[in-house]
Amino acid sequence: MVFKIYLSKAILSHSECKVGGREYMFDEDGIVLIMEPADELNMRRFIFTVPKSVYEKKGLSLHYGTAIGQGYMDIIEDIISVHIEIDVVTIIGHVRG
């Protein structure tokens, strides 16, 4: 299975909120990005979920060095895990702010 969706400014630019130090960004397609607060090394954990209906149409591709998050200032440093379930893909990793 190949996933190719490029994280452009059009994705995740519709709604943002902050709850308990976490930033939540989501769009009308059901894509959700959660950014946790920075740790002592200035690393932030991210949780990125993409519904099956979206990645089947557009694909999904995350690259090290891709800018994501609010203002597209956080750079993907590493990807810890990828979970593929029946109706959603979840990617967990770290960004450096």
What does this entry show, briefly?
This is Group-specific protein. The protein is mainly β.
| Cα-atom radius of gyration | 13 Å
Kindly report the spatial arrangement of strands forming the biggest sheet.
1-2-3-4-7-6-5
The helix count comes to: 1
Morphology: globular
Order of helices and strands: EEEEHEEE
Report the β-strand fraction as a percent range: over 45%
Structural class: mainly beta
What's the mean pLDDT score?
76
- Please mark out the parts with pLDDT under 50 across 5 or more consecutive residues, or reply none: 1-13
Distance between the termini: 31 Å
Can you count the beta strands? 7
Tell me the count of domains: 1
Largest sheet: 7 strands, antiparallel
- Can you give the helix content as a percent range? under 10%
Organism: Bacillus cereus
Protein name: Group-specific protein
Task: Describe the protein in words.
The chain contains one helix and seven strands; from the N terminus they run ββββαβββ. The protein starts with 14 loop residues before the first strand and ends with a strand. By secondary structure, the chain is mainly β. Helix content is 7%, strand content 46%.
